[in-house]
Amino acid sequence: MKLYQSNASPNSRRVRIFLAEKSISMPLVPVDLGAKEQFSDAYAAINPRRVVPTLVLDDGTAIGEVPAILRYLEEVHPEPRLLGVTPRTKAEVAMWERRAEMEGFASAMEAVRNAVPGLRNRAIAGPHDYEQIPALVERSRLRVRNFYADFDARLGEVPFVAGDQFSVADITAIVTVDFATKAAGLPMPEQHVALKRWYDSVSTRPSMAA
Ligand SMILES: N[C@@H](CCC(=O)N[C@@H](CS)C(=O)NCC(=O)O)C(=O)O
User: Fold this and answer.
1) Which of the four pLDDT bands, split at 50, 70 and 90, describes residue 110?
2) Cα of 204 to ligand 1 centre, how many Å?
3) 2 CB near ligand 1 (under 6 Å)
4) 2-76: CATH, from 3.30.530.20, 3.40.50.2300, 3.10.20.30, 3.40.30.10
5) Domain ranges within the chain, ordered by starting residue
6) How far is the centre of ligand 1, averaged over its atoms, from the C-alpha of 124 (Å)?
7) What integer pLDDT is reported at residue 169 of this predicted model?
8) Percent share of the chain, pLDDT over 70
9) Which partner from 14, 26, 68, 90 sits 20 to 30 angstroms from 101, CA to CA?
10) Contact by Cβ (8 Å): 207, 17
11) How far is the C-alpha of 51 from the C-alpha of 70, rounded, in Å?
12) 81 touches 74 (CB < 8 A)
């Protein structure tokens, strides 16, 4: 297996952290997004949707979409479990990971992609070009702030996003916090003490350097 990815890509980081948590090592093939390598014919042959990451299996199968990549890795390297263990915890992890992705990660991405001059005409990553809608930016930023407030409330009740155990929901949430802080200038507000407590404990895991 090998992973086509970019160090500048938060979606790639979700996979790198997951690999590190499971102590899986595989070649990481860099795709230079700054040099627009995702649009090259060579990369289009691997992933015609023109995004990273892509996991390529030994038989040549290319798997895109972060949750699909993580599902495959969990199946072939089950331990430690990051997608839940029992029917109940699997559903809880899926539920909280989806909330982190849709309400946090996607909102931060929307705020950045509709504002950054270098992404004109590329407001949505993928096979089609879309113009930026600057009027979306403030709403996206509000959605990130609401994500922070909602996850602060959640983390006031449980140690990890999906409950008692560290899971992929924590990975998506922490990548969201780091991306929103650095790329959107939206750090966690001081008053969210439960979110801060969670961030301080999870961010010290060695995998987070990935
Ligand atoms: N739905 C895709 C999204 C992947 C994605 O948006 N990747 C970004 C980097 S974080 C990308 O490749 N951007 C290239 C571009 O903007 O042209 C997934 O889950 O893998």
Assistant:
1) very high
2) 26
3) no
4) 3.40.30.10
5) 2-76, 87-209
6) 8
7) 98
8) 100
9) 26
10) yes
11) 16
12) yes
Instruction: Give one word for 126, left, alpha or beta, with left for phi > 0 and alpha for psi -120 to 50.
Output: left
Fold matches, 2-76 and 87-209: no
Atom of ligand 1 nearest to the CA of 51: 12
The Cα–Cα gap between 95 and 177 comes to 18
Mean pLDDT of 9-23: 98
How close are the terminal C-alpha atoms of the chain, in Å? 18
Tokens of 188: 């966690």
Ligand 1 binding pocket includes 123 (Cβ within 6 Å): no
pLDDT tens per residue, range 45-91? 999 999 999 999 999 999 999 999 999 999 999 999 999 999 999 99
CATH numeric code, 87-209: 1.20.1050.10
Helices then strands, each counted (H, E), the chain: 8, 4
Q: Pocket of ligand 1, candidates 51, 71, 72, 168: which has the most ligand atoms within 8 Å of its Cβ, to mutate?
A: 51
Cβ(44)–Cβ(50) below 8 Å: yes
CA-nearest residue, atom 2 of ligand 1: 65
Beta bridge partners of 62: 56
Task: Provide the 8-state DSSP code for 207.
Answer: G
**Is the distance from the beta carbon of residue 37 to the nearest atom of ligand 1 less than 6 Å?**
no
